[in-house]
Write a structure and sequence with these properties.
The protein has about 140 residues and is α+β, with helices and mostly antiparallel strands. It contains 3 helices and 7 strands. The model has no long low-confidence stretch (mean pLDDT about 90).
Length: about 140
């Protein structure tokens, strides 16, 4: 993958995955659902999505760790809410990756002047440091094809 123009953190509520740990969410949601049919990269949101910058990489934050990544293709707002969701983000299913959980310390080292810490904000980070982030990942896995 080329260096993305923007990297954005997307906080995921543990309320959406009650009682599920990081490994379970990685295996069953990211690799087992998001990256495969029928979801095929579609991630519904309840309140607000992301701006649809072409080629943006999203880092999914769960349980105070970055646990997955994917390339954003676009966003849509529904005319009427569907199952409590107001829209969906569309990711390239082939780009979905999970890896050993990454803590705030690593993000602070890679983006020292941009990463404020984990929270509920959808933090935007510069894409030029993404290769350094990738180099620090271990046990990277993608969807089975």
């Amino acid at each position: 993958m080329a260096t993305p123009p923007v990297v954005q953190l997307l906080p995921m509520s543990t309320d959406v995955f009650p009682g599920r740990g990081i490994a379970d969410v990685q295996a069953h949601f990211f690799l087992g659902e998001l990256a495969t049919l029928p979801r095929n990269g579609r991630y519904e949101f309840r309140t607000a999505g992301l701006s649809a910058d072409p080629g943006k990489v999203v880092l999914f934050q769960f349980a105070r760790h970055v646990v997955a990544s994917a390339e954003l293709l676009g966003c849509e707002r529904f005319a009427e809410p569907e199952d409590g969701c107001v829209g969906a983000m569309h990711f390239d299913p082939a780009s979905v990756r999970v890896f050993d959980p990454v803590g705030a310390d690593v993000l602070a080292e890679v983006w020292p002047d941009q990463f404020p810490g984990f929270g509920q904000a959808k933090t935007r980070l510069s894409g030029d440091r993404y290769p350094e982030f990738l180099a620090r990942l271990t046990n990277v896995r993608g969807p089975r094809r």
